Amino acid sequence: MQKVEELFRAENFQAVLTSSPPHSVHLLGKAIAERYPVKWVADFRDGWAGGVVVHEPTVFHRFMNRKMQDAVVRKADAIIAVSKGIKSTLEQRAITIAAKCVLIPNGYDKCDFPAPNRDLQKETMVICHCGAVTKFSNPDLFLRSVKILLNEQPQWRKKLKLHFVGFDATGHFRKLIDDNGLAGVVEYFGYRSHSEALQFLMNADMLLLIAIGRRGDAFIPGKTFEYLGSQKPIFCITNIRDTEELLERAGSFIVSSDSPAETVAEKLSDMLNGRFAGKSVRPEFLDQFDRRNQTRRLAEILDRLTGMG
């Protein structure tokens, strides 16, 4: 709190915004709101108590997380959630919370997207997965389905390239490639800067999104919105309702992560062979995820709380 005290002595702040993860930042926001006459906005980029990201090894850990979360959402003057599932979970903690809880999803910056520097008309079909390989984006099912596809339609072995861009948090990704005989098809580029990752994304013909969790989990991978902003076709494997709902509205191709590899291979074949064209995404649908519009909504909340609106 020493740095906070220095800042408040130097400036006349009217509002404080805390954004998680890490969720402990909200405890600092709560302490500031209790000590100084400011309005406080708590922004949840991920779920907290009982969430898919926070590790809770015991019942006690979950109890303490829930206790801290409840204290935060009751004290905050406004709450922002990035998905319907997270918003619903927070609102269930008290009737009064729903009135101050707002949905502002993740988004994208239009100016971040580079022009493609690859000839997209070439015969090679590039499918790109941007983002870390984790237990939530486990590509095992997809790679097994690609193996089946190539065995049934060997012409794709020379035409299909799978680009994976991002850190391998599992430590087993290269083994998955070898186990499925895809060394000549999959190219793993490892961690790249955000600008480099977006270049890979824009050079692709199609994007792969994988979002897998426990039944009832509520999250939408942050990269989903840059996928949407690219306006590329998206092939999604998921069992997360929030993710599924969003991509259904965008006209993406969605396969359940509970499907057998044969079914995923069949659906991938449909997409590769043009039997599923998807829907063109309406500009007004994409506009809600433009960072400029989201910043405008945040500014409206802050103006209302501070009496400046």
Q: How is this structure best described in words?
A:
The chain has 309 residues and is an alpha/beta fold. It folds into two domains: 2-107 and 290-306, Rossmann fold; 110-286, Glycogen Phosphorylase B (Rossmann fold), CATH 3.40.50. It contains 13 helices and ten strands. The strands form two sheets. A six-stranded parallel sheet has the order 7-6-5-8-9-10, with helices on both faces. Strands 1-2-3-4 form a four-stranded parallel sheet, with helices on both faces. Helix 2 runs parallel beside helix 3 and helix 5 (140-152) crosses helix 11. It is elongated. The two termini are 30 Å apart. The model has no long low-confidence stretch (mean pLDDT 91).
Walk me through the topology.
Elements: H1 2-10, E1 15-20, H2 25-35, E2 39-44, H3 59-75, E3 78-81, H4 84-91, E4 101-103, E5 125-130, H5 140-152, H6 156-159, E6 160-165, H7 173-179, E7 186-190, H8 194-203, E8 206-211, H9 223-230, E9 234-238, H10 241-249, E10 253-256, H11 261-272, H12 283-287, H13 291-306
Parallel strand pairs: 1-2, 2-3, 3-4, 5-6, 5-8, 6-7, 8-9, 9-10
Jot down its keywords.
single chain; alpha/beta; Rossmann fold; 2 domains; 6-stranded parallel sheet
Strand content: 15-25%
Number of helices: 13
Distance between the termini: 30 Å
State the strand order across the main sheet: 7-6-5-8-9-10
Please state the structural category.
Answer: alpha/beta
CATH homologous superfamily annotation of the largest domain:
Glycogen Phosphorylase B
Summarize the structure.
This protein has about 300 residues and is of the alpha/beta class. It has 13 helices and 10 strands.
